[in-house]
Records
---
Amino acid sequence: MASPHHPPRPRETLDRCALRAQLRGDPMLGTAFPAARLLLVEQPGPWGSRGLVDSRFGASAAAELEAAAGRFGIRVQAIRRPGRTPRTDARRWALVDTRDGRESLRWGTFTSPADLAALPFDASPGTVDADPLYLVCAHSKHDTCCALRGRPVAAAIAALRPGRVWECSHLGGDRFAANVLVLPSGLLYGRVLPFAAEEFIAAAESGEVVGALLRGRVGLAPAAQAALAFAHEHLAVRSRLDLSVVASGPVVDRAAVVRVRGPHGLLDVTVQVERVAAPGLTCHNPRPNHYLAYRPVAIVPVD
């Protein structure tokens, strides 16, 4: 029996959005967020539902920072080390660019929000970091599934790659937990399992795309994310560097055509877009809702 001072920990049940989505077979392709650049801000301790805004960072300072970064198309993510870590005056920030040919990760330190307010949002500040970094969504106040599934994955990666993983605020797609963003490649994965962390890390560090877990690449349109994943699978191309999106057409009559460059030239991938009804897309909202499913159906070479 749980102590009144220590309420029972959340557990996996049929009313959790991640399990419901798995049982329904919700597709993950095309669900990565649209921002190609990120500002990571270390903020130990608890986060409320709005992440950095609802933290000890300070609501007004966080809102101002998010607005300033947003003007440059930069998404702000709160980060903290897995497990319980002591608060320190010196914290870290990172600017990340995931765009083709511009992939970079640069670190700096700050002691107060005012230090970040003066940060130039170009690619110049900070110390370059050439190794892969793993962000694992563990934002429990946004959705219980993120912490329930995310924290064990963060701990498993940290045991194998100390210092290379951070818990982070909401990455989107709570029902696909555990969600892991690999940087600076920008590949966002869902339903990652802690006991498979070693294989996942090996693939990420060799530049391979893990197709079965791929949600998409951040910064691309949803149809382009799905097309890229489809091309990797059907061309048997493992390296993320061997395929790139050239152009993504609009959705017309519930379909979009995405042009992809591969090892043997240009290809057009047709992606169907379907509106799907589904209840309980998050743990906090069990009511009927819907999502857009992106289903690649054809790939042909460009003459």
---
Amino acid sequence: MSEPAGRAEVRTVTVTGFGTAEAAPDLLTLSVGVECRRDDAGDAYAAAGGASAAVTAALRSRGVENRDIRTSGLNVRADVVWQEGRGQQVTGYVASSMLSVRLRDLSAGSGAIAAAVEAGGNDVRLDGVQLGFADAAAGMALARDAAWADARAAAAQFAALAGAELGEVVCVRQHPVPSAPVPVGGMQRAFATDSMTVEPGESGVSASVTVEWELLVEAAGGERDVGRQR
């Protein structure tokens, strides 16, 4: 239904704010890939299972609990090449899987990573590490506070430029802010003997929020009213 002609329309201002809270991370998430090539599919599958078991055993020996080790992406495929006059030829089979590991003791993180690489040998790859928080609620609350303050400051500036002031909040929308892992692809078995140091430093928890405010303008007689346009 269309509105009657001449009906007053509330003036608003909509702003997106961003905020980040810095804190020392207490959780390291490690992605370990296992990939084995063999002439026979069964042999490739068995080899991948053995390498994966060796990696998980090494991690458990370093104090990693079962709840913090998860297997995903189990796959067995033919390894094929193109040969002139013969087309695609199967040269072997590849079995692969991915382990997602959460390390809660960051001081022992480098040793646990080295032990996993050593146990898996040449069949293991590190696909990435991500520093984060076991419970990010407190940091996220601070990030939201910062995002809100950022949005309100910008909205107040726009309101002043329009000769108005901020009124009631009309709408609030929070947006997801993805975090990116720290890539360490291509790390080979040689690193197992030269343990790499994991420096946690500080990580940021980010938030983004879009807020819509009414605009208040001074009516005749000095009273404030919701800004309207016709």
---
Amino acid sequence: MSRASSLAPLRQRDFAWYYASRSVNQSGSVMAGIALTFAVLDLTGSASDLGIVMAARMTPMVVLLLWGGVIADRFSRSLVIQVSNVVSGLTQAAIAALVLTHTAQIWQIVVLSLVNGISSAFSFPALASVMPQLVPRDQLQQANALMSISRNALMVLGPSVGALIVVTVGSGWALAVDAATWLVAAGLLLPVRLPPVDRSHTSAGVLADLREGWGYFVGTTWLWVVVLAFGAINALTGVWLVVGPAVAQDTIGRQGWGLVLSAEAIGLLLTALILLRVRLSRPLLTGMVGTAVGAVPMITLGLDPQLALLVVIALIAGMGSELFGLGWNLAMQEHVPEEMLSRASSYDALGSLIATPLGTIAAGPLALAVGDSTTLVGAGVLYLAICAAVLMSRAVRTLPRADAQLPSPSHVPR
């Protein structure tokens, strides 16, 4: 791919505004994760409480994702994303205010995280399916890579900056910045004009839509195999998110944890830059091999939490994660019919996330029962085994790229 073709999506007006909106939003979110993590730890000092807060945000996503997929296939996806941005901004602002005024209680953060999760449940399917409406089919890889570059570039410095803000002035200010970026992002979506929703494929009711989406999901082998695997993988990732910061706090330090997260982001960024120019021909085969590398940081943190080693390994794991992320987006956007894409994405997210709240809640008590090291190493080994099992599926290994020359069914040239 030439440089001109790599940047072609930015010449699409709707994609350019969408790109700006997501970039602004992500500039705050990359700091908010680490800020919320240490806000809870400062409040109670309990990894179990942190798991409950994370589960509060994830649980409504599990419960409401399917309805979010139906809504995104019936209505304007940009409007769905806008409304979600506003709700998320207001809830994050409330958490920031509680933390800044030193009046926060754990139940308040749990309730506000629950509302934030409800909002995300409706926006996630829209975000996952809007890309084919923004660019022609032959620009999908470049568009996805550009989104990844923006997100990952912000993540390189975001966690470290977030950790620095936490150490110097406290978690509340980072959460306040994130709240503002949600609201600005909603405004930047106002100029986006997507093609009218094609309702000719829409069923008579919500339940009929859900049945139709389920039929497609279970009838597509590569789709359900990967989603089933990620249901377990994401539950295991809860160990990294909950036990990881607690171990880091006592070994490499909070700033060190931020550096590890930033190194992972550098790996994501490097791979996205490469994939802006290099065509990915076997998206799921390459992606699952890359996913397997994600187990190594957990095992390393459990066995030998040395900062320099963790930074290098996190960088490599980030590269593998980006391979899967772009590969999965291309598989979904190129092989799933556009009118089914939001519902398929909602079943994808539901299956992938359904066990995540259990994983985050169980991680803290499990670490107390068997020890931090055993929990991290055990989760990493199981993670590797799951990836190996997925690669045994021929449908996953052999899924090709779709013909990039075919026009996107919903894209209207401007």
